[in-house]
């Protein structure tokens, strides 16, 4: 009895069952963006809109809509929704970065007109605010001293408070501390200044000084440091703590040698965010420091000036010379905060634990 062996031929898969889908080329998003900008500008021009911001908003809406329609037509609705989410992220990024770049450019272009070595090394002593000349040295010195004192007060207190809440805090006391930290986060700067004015100046009888302003700035710094440090400490894996404790290391030493070095980068960033917040405060300085045109290197005696107060005073005068000094002072303030951030990033990178294979 013979059997016939038949050769099996592969059956071709139907066209709709293929795993390969149509894909948009890599240059498609850029092309859609260019077309959206052109369309938005055209619509704004035809509609008679004078604001370039309105043109940009129209372009953003056209970009999101065109991205979804084209992607859904080519790749399907699922990929279209994915592209829309990505487009929204890019649009939000541009909406955030454009005002920042515009502010930096305007401050730089207007501030460099009088910013030079003389401006940085001289004060306003002997000059009227309406006259040309003068400098920002007295205000820069006051800002450095006031911010440094505030950081020396607030950073240890905020760091230890966060360590307590994460590592030790249990029960009603921890909940109460967390509640008051959250409340202090939203306190206006003028309230902190009034509190120090009522206690330090009026009740205890001390006069205006840079230290009084530093006390108010420290109050504003502490909740920011506590919340940021608390979140960074929570990100440290519990396995690191357990491994250290299993070796017989005390908890305080585990926190000092394992937990804090692991989170030092985020802690430093939080401290710098707090410093950046208080550096531009004017209300507490106006209440407690008073401002002066003279150079006062002693923050514990007599009135001082600061960069935010200097900018406010010069801009309020309204003359061409004073407004130029105000823009230059604002540029110095931005550069001061930027340098502090760069130094903090370098320290965090230097002190962070080394990771490798």
List strands and helices in order, with pairings.
Layout: H1 28-47, H2 52-75, H3 77-111, H4 117-121, H5 137-168, H6 171-185, H7 189-203, H8 210-234, H9 238-246, H10 251-262, H11 264-279, H12 283-288, H13 307-317, H14 320-351
Helix pairs in contact: 1-2, 2-3, 3-14, 5-8, 5-11, 5-13, 6-8, 7-8, 8-11, 9-10, 11-14, 13-14
The beta-strand count equals 0
Mean pLDDT: 84
Please indicate the percent range of residues in DSSP E strands (runs of 2 or more): under 5%
Q: What about the largest sheet?
A: none
**Structural class estimated from helices and strands:** mainly alpha
Q: What is the overall number of helices?
A: 14
Principal-axes shape call: flat
Please estimate the helix content.
over 70%
What's this, in brief?
The chain has 357 residues and is an all-alpha fold. The chain is built from 14 helices and no strands.
Walk me through the structure.
With 357 residues, the protein is mainly α. 72% of the residues lie in helices and 0% in strands. It contains 14 helices and no strands. It is flat and about 75 Å long.
Which terms would index this structure?
single chain, mainly alpha, 14 helices, 357 residues
